[in-house]
Write a structure and sequence with these properties.
Layout lengths: L1 H14 L2 H13 L5 H16 L10 E10 L6 E7 L2 E8 L2 E4 L7 H8 L3 H10 L8 E10 L2 E10 L2
Antiparallel strand pairs: 1-2, 1-5, 2-3, 3-4, 5-6
Helix pairs in contact: 2-3
Length: 160
């Protein structure tokens, strides 16, 4: 009976969103260098998606997944993508609405480079792109989860 109770507690803990909450806070703290209000908004939006089941494709015990975000300067809209090989969630936030969006808001080339975490090629293509007046900074995170412990790799680059 004690074994059953212990396994039941482990099952409840693995379903508890606090693991994702800690991970999302880690992304907020270590990877996104925005103003505090935007960092908090990003975290809040990730938590809402998690609680709404929109990130159910993530495995918080063993997985590799990616997070990208950018702000469209003209509209103030914040655009996000979270994905792995099993699924994706594309969403945007324009005060006060959070919308899931099936269209991908990042170029296929950028998405491919981030998915392969090919930072050398990404930096080369970033350097060779034409300069524009309204350049957007993309924030990208690679999350590697192993036995419930996560490791973050962060990258900021100019959209091309």
């Amino acid at each position: 009976m004690k074994t059953f109770y212990f396994l039941f507690l482990i099952a409840i803990a693995s379903c508890n969103p606090s693991g994702f909450k800690g991970l999302s806070r880690g992304i907020k703290k270590d990877c996104f260098d925005n103003k505090a209000a935007v960092k908090n908004l990003d975290h809040h939006n990730r938590m809402k998606l998690f609680h709404d089941g929109k990130l159910s494709f993530l495995n918080l015990q063993s997985d590799t997944f990616f997070v990208m975000a950018k702000t469209r300067n003209q509209t103030g809209q914040r655009v996000y993508r979270i994905w792995n090989e099993r699924g994706e969630s594309n969403y945007s936030y324009t005060h006060p609405n959070l919308q899931t969006d099936e269209s991908i808001q990042f170029s296929p080339r950028v998405t491919e480079l981030i998915a392969n975490w090919d930072t050398l090629t990404l930096r080369k293509e970033e350097a060779n792109r034409p300069r524009t007046f309204h350049e957007l900074t993309v924030q990208a995170v690679r999350v590697i989860v192993n036995e419930g412990k996560w490791q973050l790799s962060c990258l900021h680059f100019t959209e091309f």
